[in-house]
Amino acid sequence: MLFSAASSALSDKDGKEEWDRIVGGTKAPNGSAPYQVSLRYFGTRHFCGASIITTRVILTAAHCVDRMKPHYLIAVVGTNQLNSGGTLYPIRKIVRHEDYDNQVIKNDIALVFTLMEIRFGPNVDAIELNNEPVMPGEKLLLTGWGTTSYPGKAPNDLMRLELNAVSFEDCQEAHKDINQVFETQICALTKEGEGACHGDSGGPLVREGRQVGVVSWGLPCAKGKPDVYTKVMLGWLVAKVY
């Protein structure tokens, strides 16, 4: 069963489910991820993560905003706590990858355009994007407000988890009976008991301060299988942003 980050409930879907949370992580220090965004229904309920890439553009997963209307969403930036602080930005436009396939969860990437410019400061900033190859064993960083146990509730504090990149071949093998893995995806894992889950979807996967991936899907939750992330697609992003 996969899980959908855009919903608080789990749903059967050919053994797949998009990620919603971090399991086994630690509390992120305030200001350590100034690019982190909380996407919320009407400014209240957190349902997906995202990242700031320009003063008006936010990067997330396509499944997070599938069939969404811009006026449903509010982006909250500048805080590590879900219940306090931060600045709210209404959304004016959503652009999903035109070849997004929700059946096999392919091209799971989207842009969210804010109505007003995001004001940068000590706790709010864009993250640099990087689509250079990620090699097996490289250290990666995941941040998010996904639930910290399964089943469970989202934490108030932003969590972080260091992961190791997994080879395409090993990821394919691990998920061969669950879902297809594509070369446009990155896989990462530490050990059973650590990983992404409900609420983390759409959030940033970072290597040395640059974003390389977007949380997409996995086997809920922290079961010892690699998590799957959409690679940052610089060509597509540049075409849609500029």
Major beta sheet, strand line-up = 11-12-13-17-16-15
Rounded to the nearest angstrom, the distance between the terminal CA atoms is 38 Å
Q: State the helicity in percent bands.
A: under 10%
* Beta-strand share of residues: 35-45%
Residue windows where pLDDT falls under 50 for at least 5 positions: 3-21
Mean of residue pLDDT values: 87
Radius of gyration: 16 Å
Query: What is the total tally of β strands?
Result: 17
Structural classification: mainly beta
Strand count, sense and barrel status of the largest sheet are:
6 strands, antiparallel, barrel
Which term fits the overall shape?
Answer: globular
Figure out the total of helices: 3
Helix and strand sequence? EEEEEEHEEEEEEHEEEEEH
GO molecular function: serine-type endopeptidase activity
InterPro entries: Peptidase_S1, Trypsin_dom, TRYPSIN_HIS, TRYPSIN_SER
Pfam family, one: Trypsin
Keywords: Disulfide bond, Hydrolase, Protease, Secreted, Serine protease
Topology summary:
Elements (H helix, E strand, L loop, with lengths): L16 E2 L1 E4 L2 E2 L8 E6 L3 E8 L4 E4 L1 H4 L7 E5 L9 E10 L13 E5 L13 E2 L9 E6 L14 E8 L1 H7 L10 E5 L5 E4 L5 E4 L2 E9 L8 E5 L2 H8 L1
Parallel strand pairs: 10-16
Antiparallel strand pairs: 1-16, 2-14, 3-12, 4-5, 4-7, 5-6, 6-9, 7-8, 8-9, 11-12, 11-15, 12-13, 13-17, 15-16, 16-17
Organism: Parnassius apollo
Protein name: trypsin
Subcellular location: Secreted
